[in-house]
Amino acid sequence: DAESTVTEHLYKVLVIGDTEVGKTSLVRRLVKNQYAEGYKISVGADFALKIINWDRNTVVRLHLWDIAGQERVRNLSRVYYQKAMGALVVYDITNDTTLGSALSWKCDLDNKLRLSNGKPIPAVLLANKCDQSRHSPSESSLLDKICNEKDFVGWFETSAKENINVKEAVNFLVRHILLSD
Ligand code: GDP
Ligand code: MG
């Protein structure tokens, strides 16, 4: 019967970017559909599981690795990156320096981890806190350019607060992970 043909995938997904950009809030929105202002979590890595019933034959389990409190290090160990299949690289649109940092995070990731074919693992750039300001067309063409140059599979404006594009961005990432797996 149909039940017996379901394939389950377990994928490790890294959530990286500077402190305060909203990584933990995005994970909480995705997994619990909750948002709490000023929510602070303790130091260490934080793990969350998101189960997606992708289609009739496919279940995807995302093991989300949120680098809680390790943002200052800026270069995590290879061991931390090991076996990740995708990444969400987050910046805060209200804080310009966090975009530059996001690109540094992406470089560090690509230096430490590659798919077996030598390509970078799929990574999506998240322009978070989009509830705070409207982006201009020039900003979106800049982000298009950055994605091209830095090998992101795409970018999304997101808001953990208002629940904008969080699911969409993750589904987009999963689509790319499934293609590269
Ligand atoms: P992290 O350090 O990257 O894990 O960031 P947090 O998830 O702890 O969020 C840092 C701060 O930004 C907290 O005060 C959050 O409430 C706030 N924040 C997170 N996401 C959003 C968002 O989408 N919109 C707004 N306005 N604030 C957000
Ligand atoms: Mg956090």
Automatic annotation (TrEMBL):
A cellular component annotation (GO) from this entry: lysosome
Gene that produces this protein: rab32b
Topology within the bilayer: Lipid-anchor
Compartments in which it is found: Endomembrane system; Membrane
Principal subcellular localization: membrane
Record protein name field: Ras-related protein Rab
Molecular function via GO: GTP binding; GTPase activity
Biological source species: Chanos chanos
Similarity section: Belongs to the small GTPase superfamily. Rab family.
Role, per record: The small GTPases Rab are key regulators in vesicle trafficking.
Swiss-Prot/TrEMBL keywords: GTP-binding, Lipoprotein, Membrane, Nucleotide-binding, Prenylation
Gene Ontology terms describing biological process: endosome to lysosome transport; phagosome-lysosome fusion
Record has Nucleotide-binding as a keyword: yes
